[in-house]
UniProtKB/TrEMBL annotation:
GO terms for molecular function: hydrolase activity, acting on ester bonds. It is found in: Endomembrane system; Golgi apparatus membrane. Its main location: membrane. This is Post-GPI attachment to proteins factor 3. The gene is PGAP3.
Length: 320
């Protein structure tokens, strides 16, 4: 999830430039948008635009104004390339080739596949692990929280609006905090359930405060970045410490080590910021594609660990 943090650094940078990115500050772009809107986005021309617009585009909320910005973005990019300049960003983003109503097709597809992987692993977990396993409900809840986050990530990359952006960020923070809770239950909560309950209440309060501040007071990219990095660090340090203490006794814990290290390593991908290959594949999309096998491995660890905990609790029960 630190990858998201890196993306936020870029967004924070973009937000700091009050007037946007290089591309949308370009007079050619601004002129083009203004003229396109005058020509197409009012009166009879607007009615004509709406009658020509495919139904899936209007359902996805693409307006005449959005279409003008999209067309003028490519006019500006062509001009930059012809003059031998570097590809500029627009409104904090690289130019992406739209596919149907998908604004960032590769990231949207990769988010969908991450969600599909989470759903498949949830189904597998529920068939192979009995509900009496001590971590069963916490793990199933984690899978639902992940599924929800991937749903919003797919929506956000399909159509970037204020609301979908917030939902993507908030749901991603929820996954990190739920992973911290999962770690707390595994390391402390099984022996001291009251501690896990108190910690859950604390995390819920933390999440509520975080989301309320960002949505009701001020959507501050810098603060959001700092908060997510802090949540992520607690998550990584807590899981790794537990893994290092237990990996000799429990071989399946190595899967968890690989997941934590891979997530940290892959998040470096996000620091590479380059114009998308074929106007589709950028560093963020590659990061989303790369996390698909990591989810499968993490759920595989949760499955092994839950079955181990079940065996252990049954053995204790027999002894008692
Ligand atoms: Zn994303």
């Amino acid at each position: 999830m630190a990858g998201r943090a890196a993306r936020l650094v870029l967004l924070a940078g973009a937000a700091a430039l009050a007037s946007g990115s290089q591309g949308d500050r370009e007079p050619v772009y601004r002129d083009c948008v203004l003229r396109c809107e005058e020509r197409n986005c009012s009166g009879g021309a607007l009615r004509h635009f709406r009658s020509r617009q495919p139904i899936y585009m209007s359902l996805a909320g693409w307006t005449c104004h959005d279409d003008c910005k999209y067309e003028c973005m490519w006019v500006t990019v062509d001009m930059y390339l012809q003059d031998g300049h570097r590809v500029p960003q627009f409104h904090g983003k690289w130019p992406f080739s739209r596919f149907l109503f998908f604004q960032e097709p590769a990231s949207a597809l990769a988010s969908f596949l991450n969600g599909l992987a989470s759903l498949m692993m949830l189904c597998r977990y529920r068939t192979s692990v009995p509900a009496s396993s001590p971590m069963y409900h916490t793990c199933v809840a984690f899978a639902w929280v992940s599924l929800n986050a991937w749903f919003w990530s797919t929506v956000f990359h399909t159509r970037d609006t204020d609301l979908t952006e917030k939902m993507d960020y908030f749901c991603a923070s929820t996954v990190i905090l739920h992973s911290v809770y999962l770690c707390c239950v595994r390391t402390v909560g099984l022996q001291y359930p009251a501690v896990a309950r108190a910690f859950r209440a604390f995390l819920l309060l933390l999440l509520t405060t975080h989301v309320s501040y960002l949505s009701l007071v001020h959507f501050d990219y810098g603060y959001n970045l700092a908060a997510n990095v802090a949540f992520g660090l607690v998550n990584v340090v807590w899981w790794l410490t537990w893994c290092l203490r237990n990996h000799r006794r429990l071989p399946h814990v190595r899967k968890c080590v690989v997941v934590v290290l891979l997530l940290q390593g892959l998040s470096l991908l996000e620091l590479l910021d380059f114009p998308p290959f074929f106007w589709v594949l950028d560093a963020h999309a590659i990061w989303h594609i790369s996390t698909i096998p990591v989810h499968i491995l993490f759920f595989s660890f949760l499955e092994d660990d839950s079955l181990y905990l079940l065996k252990e609790s049954e053995a204790k029960f027999k002894l008692a």
